[in-house]
């Protein structure tokens, strides 16, 4: 049951490491650095503005490299339409 879906045997599930599928000389691009260091905001109240215009405030409890946030005591800030 573990080998469902994409076929192949064991291993890395389709990763092409070490078998010619990668770029030659992988050091072409400089390493990407995080634009925003969220660690300094951990356990502090932050305000988040979403692309649709909604805003929330809450205490930042955690995050990941894709900037998914885990927040506590969240409140949505409602703005009146004028």
TrEMBL record:
Record InterPro entries: Lsm7/SmG-like, LSM_dom_sf, Sm, Sm_dom_euk/arc
Protein's UniProt keywords contain Ribonucleoprotein: yes
Biased composition (Gly residues): 8-24
Keywords noted in UniProt: Ribonucleoprotein
Domain named Sm: residues: 33-82
One protein family per Pfam: LSM
UniProt GO cellular component terms: catalytic step 2 spliceosome; Lsm1-7-Pat1 complex; spliceosomal tri-snRNP complex; U12-type spliceosomal complex; U2-type prespliceosome; U6 snRNP
UniProt-recorded Gene Ontology molecular function terms: RNA binding
Residue stretches in coiled coil: none
Region called Disordered, residue ranges: 1-31
Organism superkingdom: Eukaryota
Gene3D superfamilies named in the record: 2.30.30.100
Similarity comment: family membership: Belongs to the snRNP Sm proteins family.
Stated name of the protein: Sm-like protein lsm7
Annotated source species: Puccinia graminis f. sp. tritici
Recorded name of the encoding gene: LSM7_1
């Amino acid at each position: 049951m573990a080998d469902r879906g994409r076929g192949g045997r064991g291993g890395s599930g389709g990763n092409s490491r070490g078998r010619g599928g990668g770029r030659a000389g992988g050091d072409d691009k400089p390493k990407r650095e995080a634009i925003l260091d969220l660690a300094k905001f951990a356990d502090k109240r932050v305000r988040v503005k979403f692309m649709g215009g909604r805003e929330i405030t809450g205490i930042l409890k955690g995050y990941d490299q894709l900037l998914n946030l885990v927040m506590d005591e969240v409140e949505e800030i409602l703005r009146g339409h004028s």
